[in-house]
Design a protein that fits this description.
The chain is of the alpha+beta class. It folds into four domains: about 110 residues, Rossmann fold, CATH 3.40.50.10090; about 55 residues, Dna Ligase, domain 1; about 210 residues, D-amino Acid Aminotransferase, Chain A, domain 1 (2-Layer Sandwich), CATH 3.30.470.20; about 260 residues, no CATH class. It is built from 24 helices and 31 strands. The strands form six sheets. Strands 10, 11, 12, 13, 14, 15, 16, 17 and 18 form a nine-stranded antiparallel β-sheet that branches. Strands 21, 24, 25, 26, 27, 28, 29, 30 and 31 form a nine-stranded antiparallel β-sheet that branches. The protein has a five-stranded parallel β-sheet with strand order 3-2-1-4-5. Helix 2 links the parallel strand 2 and strand 3.
Length: about 675
């Protein structure tokens, strides 16, 4: 951008930042652009042969304000005539330091940015945009009531989700009310769905709308906070959003920008928008009046694209310097992602961190390490030219590889198998997502017929059949809520039994791992008649049951210490009358080192599973596909001596555990076709 480079030559900018990567969106050797930061490992690597970078050497990492006060910084700035100071996020303290030293601070006033970002004050600013917000109200915590519906509670200030709480019970609300009775909070409707974000820049009346990215939020092992932002994926957007969705997103950005113009805002601002997975409507949930953290990597990705335009950080500088951008085009990007590992436990900065960084780099990933120590702060920022996500809340193969490197103790099913589970857990029927009901073959006594009416239908078949039933009975599914939709399936005997669910999951896993189908390897040793055996093979799903999976010709028993995703637990001759069989599929295992500094000798600590089941407490309609976990509390004991948790109930209150205790045979098994020896 020639007008920007020309301006910098006569009006130099000095970017002072705690973390140097915030300032690395343009070439550090650009004439008139300078950086002052801490002397950490990443900064030293980034500043090799760079004349425009000053690194401050101190024992501890300095904040931006501390860097500005440092003697070396002041001496460096003295070299310039009328320089401008730029920081990542402005504060009143930074403004005071700049004023005392008679430095020109480019960032907009902190009073304005705080007013825009704070959850309660922003309501007044954007009052005319209420159509874009979820329903909300402002109340003191002591006055908030629980109406048996989930809602989001936010205090006035929060960052990356730290001040956002999902209230899903009276108990959780009571805890908040007891701790902060007089504190005001903003409470909003709770919706589920993907969050999208983008970085935009204002220069006078000119608005440059940045590339939209999927916001990665709350993934376990990267963070322990469900609403914590941990990255961005630009490649997933076109998969999840239609062109109409993208235009709706941009319309919200334009409306927000008009309000910001009234406040005199210039430079970067970010918006976060959630799409309700039921209605597909978009809602504005956050406005960030500052340089968003994703700016640097978006700019780096843009710099790699052969396109005549500017990156988003250049648009930021242009806005702050009042340069006309009306004829400028932003460089588009359609791939790339970054994901952040936050510090969860005090021992996260462990002796293995150097090896972890090296292993990530060996997989063509860029890694920025931080010298942070506080829980919740960034430990690693991992960047890829490809997507780390394959769907909402689902890691891609690259994402799983990253997770396996930073947490080698976690193992998952393949993405293909996980998609099957997700489809049964969140079956999309018009505007609703439901878990597929449990189908009890023993009670229905149905033989033959369509798979969907025998507890063996796949998700597509179930959706098609319920649509036909609705059409025949002149039922408008668009007007049904989640509860009514599930009742319709149950009343028409449509669901999935435990072995049917296991079949589809294990078939997907087998195809992903060996390129074979379950149909090609499954055997029916108890069927002797050749014609019956042929029928069983042709109608494979209908004829597979728990005992089929448990046959030695199809699977073999394994020890608890060797369990892995894709294995299953069978309960043979269970139930009060010991006439019921059941199967649950292992979806994830979590191990821990036996000693803190060990890099070997892992032990299983947690087993996650999925199954289709009905508890007595479920009543007529609340059963179906669900997940649970088994925490290993005694490594030397059997499965029944561990802690089983499902639907927040453990062991004697957990009916799945009770079913396991009733079984004559309870064992962990693995498909012979999935055994690594085969």
């Amino acid at each position: 951008m020639k007008s920007l480079t020309d301006k910098l030559k006569s009006n130099p900018i000095i970017y002072v930042t705690r973390d140097i990567e915030r300032a690395m969106s343009i070439d550090p050797d650009t004439e008139g652009y300078f950086i002052i930061s801490n002397n950490n490992d990443f900064a030293k690597q980034s500043s090799v042969n760079k004349k425009n970078i000053l690194l401050i050497k101190e024992k501890e990492i300095l904040s931006t304000a501390e860097l500005l006060k440092h003697t070396d910084t002041k001496e460096f700035i003295k070299k310039f005539t009328n320089p401008s100071i730029l920081v990542f996020k402005n504060t009143a303290q930074i403004e005071k330091i700049c004023e005392e030293n008679k430095w020109n601070l480019l960032n907009p006033p902190s009073k304005i940015s705080n007013k825009i970002e704070e959850k309660i004050s922003q309501v007044e600013i954007f009052k005319s945009l209420n159509e874009f917000f979820l329903n909300y109200k402002i109340e003191k915590c002591k006055d908030i009531k629980w109406n048996k519906e989930k809602f989001i509670l936010q205090f006035n200030y929060s960052h990356t989700g730290s001040g956002t709480v999902l209230i899903d019970s009276q108990e959780k609300l009571d805890t908040i009310k007891k701790q902060f009775p007089e504190r005001e909070a903003r409470i909003s409707d709770f919706v589920e769905g993907p969050i999208f974000t983008n970085n935009n820049a204002l220069s006078g009346n000119d608005l440059i709308i940045g590339n939209i990215s999927y916001q990665i939020t709350g993934i376990k092992y990267f963070t322990d906070k469900p609403f914590s932002t941990i990255g961005n994926d630009w490649g997933l957007v076109n998969k999840l959003l239609t062109q109409v969705d993208i235009e709706n997103f941009k319309n919200i950005v334009r409306s927000v920008s008009e309000k910001l113009k009234e406040l005199g805002w210039k430079g970067l601002f970010g918006v976060d928008i959630i799409m309700d997975q039921k209605t597909k409507k978009m809602y504005l949930i956050e406005v960030n009046a500052r340089q968003p953290a994703s700016t640097t990597f978006e700019s780096i990705l843009q710099n790699k694209v052969k396109y005549d335009g500017i990156n988003i950080f250049e648009a930021h500088l242009a806005g702050l310097l009042n340069i006309d951008t009306s004829t400028e085009k932003l460089i588009p990007i359609s791939n790339g992602s970054q994901i952040i590992k936050r510090i969860i436990h005090n021992n996260d900065w462990s002796p293995q961190i150097t090896k972890i960084i090296n292993d990530l780099k060996k997989n063509n990933l860029d890694v920025i390490g931080y010298n942070n120590k506080n829980i919740g702060t960034e430990l690693l920022r991992i960047q890829s030219n490809q997507s780390v996500m394959t769907d909402h809340n689902r890691l891609s193969d690259i994402g799983k590889k990253i997770l396996h490197i930073i947490c080698p103790n976690i193992a998952f099913l393949s993405n293909e198998a996980q998609k099957v589970i997700d489809a049964y857990l969140n079956l999309p029927i018009k505007n609703n997502f439901i878990s597929v009901p449990y189908f009890n073959n023993a009670r229905q006594k149905i033989r033959g017929g369509l798979k969907v009416f025998t507890g063996k239908g796949n998700p597509k078949e179930i959706i098609e059949e319920i649509s036909i039933i609705a059409q025949k009975n002149k039922i408008n599914l668009d007007k049904f809520n989640q509860e009514q939709t599930k009742q319709l399936l149950v009343d028409n005997n449509i669901g999935i039994d435990c072995s049917g669910l296991a079949y589809y999951i294990l078939n997907a896993e087998l195809k992903a791992k060996t390129n074979k189908s379950l149909q090609s390897v499954i055997k029916f040793p108890t069927i002797k008649n050749i014609f019956r055996k042929l029928i069983a093979k042709l109608r494979i799903v209908q004829n597979v049951n728990v005992l089929t999976f448990a046959q030695d010709e199809n699977s073999h028993s394994i020890l608890k210490k060797n369990i892995k995703p894709g294995d299953f637990i069978v309960m043979i001759n269970a139930g009060i009358k010991q006439d019921r069989d059941h199967i649950i599929v292992i979806t994830k295992t979590n191990c821990e080192y036996n000693t803190p500094d060990s890099t070997n000798n892992l032990s299983i600590k947690k087993i996650s599973y999925v199954h289709s089941f009905a508890w007595n407490k479920d009543g007529k309609y609340n059963h179906g596909v669900r997940e649970g976990e088994i925490e290993i509390i005694n490594e030397n004991a059997g499965l029944l001596d561990q802690l089983w948790t499902e639907q927040c109930k453990t062991n004697q209150e957990n009916e799945t555990y009770i079913r396991a205790t009733q079984a004559k045979t309870l064992e962990i098994r693995r498909l012979n076709a999935l055994d690594e020896k085969n």
